[in-house]
Structures are given as C-alpha cells and as structure tokens.
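To whoever is on call:

I kicked off a structure prediction for a single chain this morning and the downstream step that reads the tokens threw a length-mismatch warning. I double-checked the sequence; it's 466 residues and nothing unusual in it as far as I can see. Pasting both halves so you can look.
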Amino acid sequence: MKKLVRFAAIGLLVAAAVLTVIYRAVNQVPSSELPLNEQVYEIFTEGGCLSCHSADPELPFYAKIPVAGDIVMTDVDSGYRAFDMTKFMEDLKAGNEVNAVELAKVEKVVLDDRMPMPKYYLVHWGSSLTPAKREIVLDWVRKMRTAIYNDGLTGDRAAEPVRPIDKVLEYDAAKAALGYALYHDTRLSVDNTVSCATCHELQNAGVDNHQYSHGVNDQLGGVNAPTVYNAVYNFVQFWDGRAKTLADQAAGPPLNPVEMASESFDQIIAKLKADRKFAKAFTEVYPDGLTEANITDAIEQFERTLITPDSPFDKWLRGDDDAITAEQLEGYELFKKYDCATCHAGQNLGGLTYELMGLRRHYFAERGLELTNEDNGRFKETGVERDRHRFKVPGLRNIEHTWPYYHDGTRETLEEAVRDMGLYQSGVNLSDYEVASITSFLKTLTGEYDGTPITTSNSRDEIHGH
C-alpha cells in the first residue's frame, strides 16, 4: 500500500512537472526584438481577445456543443457589448495611436487580471496573461499614454487615465470674436427669441439646467442639453454623434424645428446682411462674406476658447499635492476601481467613445418611462443594432454645476447620478461613503474660464418653477 501511495505521489509530481513545462512552453513572452506594439499585439492575439470582443468572432469547436455552447455565446455577447476590440487591434498591429478610452479599458483589465477568464485559458493554454506579459502590456500603456498627451506630467501621474485641461488652445481671435456675437445672436432663430446661449449659458456652466431645453414657442427638446464648455475635446458632438465637428454641431439647432426653427441658412443670412455694420465686420474677417460655412466656422472658433483649466484636480495632476483633500483623492481611487475611468478618461473625462447605457443592468427596462427615439442613441444615426442605447460619453468637467444628469435628465443630483452609474454601468451597489467620496472627487473637476471659476446662477427651485 505504501508503495502504491509513493508511486501515486511520484506520478502526481511528474504530471505537475510536465504540465508546468507545457504551460511555460505555450506561454512564452514575445521576442523583445519586436517593437513594443507588436509584442502587445501578439499577446492579445494569443490571448484570444477577438474570440469575444468582435462582431465576427472565431468560435471554438465546442461552441456547437450543448451547454458549453450556451456558455460560450453568453461570454461572446457580454464581451462584445462591453468592448469591440476590432479597431483597437488594427491600430495596434499598424503601430497607430489608439483611442485613449480603449487604452484605459485594456489597462484596467490587465491590472485587475480579469482576462482571459479561467474557463478560457484552461482550454486555451497559451492564452494566459502571465506576469511577464502583464508587464509588457502595462509598459506599452504607459508609453502610449505619454505619447498621446505629451502634457508634461511626471512620475506616477504621467500614467493616469485622466489628464489636465490645456491652458490654452489655438484659435483665430478675429473669427472667435464674430463667433461670440453669433453665439449670443437670437437672429439665428426664426422669431428672434432663441440663441445658442439660451440653452448653453456661459454663466451657468454652459447649460440651462433644464431637463429638456425650451426652444421657439416654448417647445421642448427631447434630450438634455450637454455643456458647451470643453466640447472641443469631444470626438463627435451631440449625444448620438451626428455631428463630427463643432461647426457641424453649430449648423444643427438653427434649423431644428423645436429649437431655433429657422427655415434655412439663407433666411438667417438675409437677416444678418440687413445689419450693415455686422455684415461689414464679418466680411473683413471672411472675404467671401456671410455663408453657412463661415457662420458655423466662426462659432467653432469661439467655442475653442471655452475650455476650463486649472481645476483643483488638474493642479494635483501637475504636482500640487495640497490641491485636493484626502477624501477627494480616495474618491478618485474609487472612481478608477469601479471602472469609471475606463469610459470617462482623457482631458474631458469623457467624449471619446460611444458606450452602452445599462452595461451591467437594463437601465431602460427599470427607468419606468416610455422609450423615446432619443433613447436609441447612436442607433438613430446608424441603424446598427449594437448601437441601440449607446451614447457619446458625457464629459465630467464642471459636473457639479451641469445638473440634471444623463441624456434624459432624470437624475437631479450628482449623488443620484453617481449611485446609479455604479449600479447600471459597473454593476456595484455603492455605499453611502463611496458615493460621498466619488462625488467629492468630481467636484474637484470644476475649472476656470478666463480666470473665473465655473459656477451656475440657477437654482433648482427657480428651474422647477419655470
């Protein structure tokens, strides 16, 4: 009996040794002679990322087996909903700059050692993310992030997914001056009552603090007006991304029937030309005179000035340890822990990707309101089913003053918004302490415009009494 036990023990040791050798053999790190991006590409390819995170995954043979196949397809659906890695992998292979949000998502998954899942790498042995592979990926993330922003951050803060607002952006001062005038000009509306500033008030954090904005004849829009401050950092404009640039965005509201309701830009131009002094000043800057393209370009140039640097958190990022409190710093760490910074990354803490509203829990099924066309988000523009309920991620700069929150304006306070984002996007029930800490951090994102801190002169009582 003792011999049998001894032989069994020896057999187990031999088997363990053989398995260890095989595991190490199939989990070799890429050659250090390869460029760093190619090493990372090889790691993710071997890791099978596109088996779940793509529209057309290469399914394993066991995906056709009952029960096992159901598990596989559930994982594929979940992975694709959260992150389509197709373009990321293409950019990685080509050595291109990758999207900062995709960078943040990859970094967080690697830091948390979440992927690949055990049920995947137990079958696909070469897919394991070993410590050596993890270090290669994280080193690449740090170097890529530094290259993307080139903003002078040093030490550990140079690797943060959140970045400081630029002190100044380039713009044409003469065109911006015309844009400022046009931004406040009610002649862009059919009845001369509504301007851009009506819904995006500069003295009110670039919003009007209404759930839905009021257009001509007091008509209501169907989506909450986002702030105009820092919109220059958004990769597209509007919640559904239908405008690629600030100029494209500026062309929309004047002709929207429930906003400014002008019949055409020809109608607007005729009114502006009747103002000889303005028309003369405009032609001095734009020799071809008043055109739709020139009007919207001038507004874009003005909106390029609407950045809000020097928030307490920006000062902390740039090295001032006393700029924020211990509670606020803890809130930032929680913000990262619960994956908030994987979508709200970069200088505007958002505005870089479309993301699904209700990633971990069905927001619209639980909201209790009838679905509207605006709830379809990006799907409105593309007709692609995956885009249903996906929205451009809102920036979080000056967020304490831009209430109410979400595309539907259904969350009145920042605390409500934080708690429900935890539930619907991160799948966690945040404690009161965590909500308070994250909210405290978010308040450090309030910056300055022309040296004056951003604020709002609106009160909730006044708004509700409109």
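Update from on-call: the warning came from a stale cache, not from the record. Cleared it. Sanity check on the structure: The longest helix spans residues 2-26.
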